[in-house]
Amino acid sequence: LSPGDCWPLQGRQGQVVIRLPARVHPTAVTMQHIYKDVSPSGTVTSAPRDVAVFVSLCWALLGVDADGEEETLLGTFTYNVAKEAIQTFPLKDAPLPRAFSYIKLLVKTNWGNPAYTCIYRVQVHGKMA
């Protein structure tokens, strides 16, 4: 990981939708940001803070999947910049009885940077269908 080599989201909020390589029964999500020590600015205010995780069977612009069902909220968590750079968050009701093709990370807030939010790495854990 190199400082600045991230998925940049404009502002303090944003979302990333990831198409999974196969249908997956997700059990956890891992997020990674850089450490404060390697940041050129000496801060990590661009790190996500409060995040919600949703899944869907198909790309859902309006939050509705192909079966007419809304996307499913799997949980919310707080990425803590005072802890390790790599943090894993278990998802509720995991493993789910249904497998999904898409996962959406909705960043509700970051650690104070008004201009942008950076996501360095996301990993989805689970069992392939």
From TrEMBL:
Annotated Pfam families: Sad1_UNC
InterPro entries reported in the protein's UniProt record: SUN1-5, SUN_dom
Keywords: Membrane, Transmembrane, Transmembrane helix
GO molecular function, one term: protein-membrane adaptor activity
Compartments it resides in: Nucleus inner membrane
Span of domain SUN: 1-129
A Gene Ontology cellular-component term: nuclear inner membrane
Main localization category: nucleus
Keyword hit for Flavoprotein: no
Statement: the UniProt record of this protein carries the keyword Amino-acid biosynthesis: no
Domain of life: Eukaryota
Protein name: SUN2 protein
Organism of derivation: Haliaeetus albicilla
Gene responsible for this protein: Sun2_2
